[in-house]
Amino acid sequence: MGLNCAIDGPSGAGKSTIAKTLAKKLGFVYVDTGALYRSIGLYVSRLGCDTKSADEVTPLLKDIKVELRYVDGAQRVILNGEDVSDLIRTPEISMAASNVSAIPAVRDFLLDLQRDIAAKNDIIMDGRDIGTVILPNAEVKIFMTASAEERARRRFEELKAKGQDVDYGEILKDINQRDYNDSHRETAPLLKAVDAVELDTTSMSIDEVVEKIENLIVSAKAEEDRGFKTIPAFRRWFYAIVRFIAAIPFYIAFNIRYEGLENRPEHGSVILAGNHRTWFDPILIAIKVKYISSYMAKSELFDNFLLKYVIMAVHGFPTRRNSADVSALGLAEKYIRNGYNLTIFPEGTRSKDGKIGRAKSGVAYIASTCGVPVYPVGISYKGHLCFRRKITVRFGKPIMPEDLNIASVTKTELRGAGERIMERIAKLVEQDA
Ligand code: DC
Hints:
This protein is α/β, with parallel strands linked by helices. 44% of the residues lie in helices and 17% in strands.
């Protein structure tokens, strides 16, 4: 899999110029997704059909085959065998593309094509919904804007240079109309992904914008290259020894039974999410997961000087429980991107009676932004926790990031995904009841 850079933004913000320059400089493939919508706009217009009508456009899709080819590094769009790369660059087709792009069937039709290209290459993909829908796990996400007047001026110069007879007022009107269409449609509207870096290019030069994004890509690539192999050996050994020693008193004090061990993760960069039943849950999970993990722990524990260092030694970091702790989320992401697992208790607080609480949104947020699976773990015991009490720790099958159904990382989506994760954990607990 390659590194994915998503550049979204309104028409004429400079996305394609910047993306092309960057792709050439870094040896990435540039994917102009607007061209795909344009080719469908062209096909529908040629037949004289209404580009706004889902009823007229949807049945035509089965007759359309769009491909992207690369000739000397430049993208060419092939519509049913015909190279339409130049024909799709007129103002009429721009509007037709904007119209057909609001039709959900058209967006579905183009989804896999875009994802397939991204899966195979290092790419820079520009569009409207790349960071939110097409590649929600892109390593670098940019939301590029510029004032409508500046964008109209740029497009005017570009078309004039190509010898086209154009009117600035008309272009500005078109841009405003397309902005409105693209941001008000129901399916995948133009939206900044929460984790995208916003760049207003109104008064930036091309070189400045290129340099800014290039830096982001280079550091993302460096992070990716670091991977789990670079976790120093002494850390892994230290962790293994601490894990072994910490387990001994618990094996003596309790009758710990493990189930579903075949479901355990075999390597790093996953999330282990359990219900929170005892204060030593992290140890109960760590005993059977060999791979090194980081831990999210409540910030109060860090008030104790000694405990603080013990927790930090095993890659624990503090999180404030009653607010969205952005720095904790950032640290969690960092650990995952560096190849560690993350062990987390999504409810935030320990359950005294064994009932499963609601998940905070952090777990779903981290899983979706890092694109890693969540391994559910159910911890249960009956009655009071006393000497030799039987404690069952059950590992469940992983929940893949795509099964969390997070498209645009909204609060509602995160809450829904959190509920699904807790349901899976609850199933692992309920079997004891
Ligand atoms: O980027 P462009 O101007 O070539 O795009 C043409 C139209 O296609 C634009 O008005 C919105 C639509 N589009 C889209 O909805 N989603 C994309 N990923 C790319 C383009």
